[in-house]
Write a structure and sequence with these properties.
CATH superfamily of the largest domain: Winged helix-like DNA-binding domain superfamily/Winged helix DNA-binding domain
Structural class: alpha+beta
Number of helices: 6
Largest sheet: 3 strands, mixed
Low-confidence stretches: none
CATH topology of the largest domain: Arc Repressor Mutant, subunit A
Shape: globular
Number of domains: 2
CATH architecture of the largest domain: Orthogonal Bundle
Strand content: 15-25%
Order of helices and strands: HHHHEEEEHEH
Number of strands: 5
Mean pLDDT: 86
CATH class of the largest domain: Mainly Alpha
Radius of gyration: 17 Å
């Protein structure tokens, strides 16, 4: 989601950007394509606002998710990771390396035929997430 669209979304929802909230949003804007935990956001936000607390970070992240500015995905270990929403019709697919734990985005609309089938069966799809676990090319090469 481009910065202008984010600003419009914030204004339309009358969400007041305090210094702490702005720090959280700035961290997410500066880390497009990254999947950050709340704790990682906290560490980065403290460079901007040293007294920001984890509760403020969690509340801000959740509010930005509810406004569809951020995506929230549950990964292994029960940790949610957040990423900024780049596009409105974003298909959420990830490949997670089982060796180095890097997360790679897959931008292809791989599940379109499945979604179409489910809609024909009467389902109303709200969202989906696909996670594939594999060795990334670098870790695969190191295994050999």
């Amino acid at each position: 989601m481009p910065n202008k669209k984010i600003d419009e979304q914030l204004e339309a929802s009358h969400y007041r950007l305090t210094q702490q909230r702005k720090a959280v949003l700035d961290v997410m804007r500066e880390n497009i394509g990254c999947h950050l935990t709340a704790e990682e956001v906290l560490v980065k936000a403290r460079h901007k606002v040293p007294n920001i607390g984890i509760a403020t970070v969690y509340r801000t992240l959740e509010r930005l998710v509810s406004m569809q500015i951020l995506y929230k995905t549950l990964f292994d270990g029960g940790k949610y990771r957040y990423e900024i929403s780049i596009q409105e019709d974003h298909q959420h697919h990830h490949i997670i390396c089982v060796s180095c734990n890097k997360i790679f985005e897959v931008e292809e609309s791989l599940l379109n035929s499945l979604e179409h089938y489910l809609e024909q069966q009467g389902f109303e799809i709200v969202d989906h997430q696909l996670k594939i676990y594999a060795y990334c090319p670098q870790c695969k090469a190191e295994k050999v």
